[in-house]
Amino acid sequence: MSTLGVLIAVAVTLVLVALGIAAKRISAAWIEFRGQRLVTCPEDSRPAGVVVDANHAALTAWRGSPDVRLAGCSHWPERAGCGQVCLAQIEAAPHDCLVSSILVKWHDGKCCVRCGRPVDEFYWAGGQPALLLSSGAVQEWSEIPAERLPETLEAARPVCFDCYLREVERPRPVRAAVS
Predict the structure, then answer these.
(1) Neighbouring C-alpha atoms within 13 Å toward the C-beta of 46
(2) pTM score, two decimals?
């Protein structure tokens, strides 16, 4: 092989390695910053449901650390244009503020209030455990706004996916409160 051929092979290899590194950073950032999150708003100290612009984070991650910004917040539009100081909470612990992680942790070690089976195995692509609310209604966790999650989980009890399906097909009557 000629010297030119070797140089071309080395150049192509370096480009492919650089593209591989960039692709790894981009995909890792997208995976890390996607999903609904729960943070404490620094402006009013109340829970806020936020969504990070995962696409922007991914596209800026190729050069090193991603540029993280919000795509949405439950306190918008009233507080749109805030300094997005809550991003520090996400950057410090991106996994811990994910709604799905909070729910997995909450369900851990608990049993279904209907059938008594453990509900700590999640099947996010398929059936997901639900919540028995203090009102007596059974609701999928995805129907609860992230900013209301802390107060809801305080009073809720876990329901496995099988019991949730039975509940949807044949709702139980809501019992009147005894005075």
Answers:
(1) 11
(2) 0.73
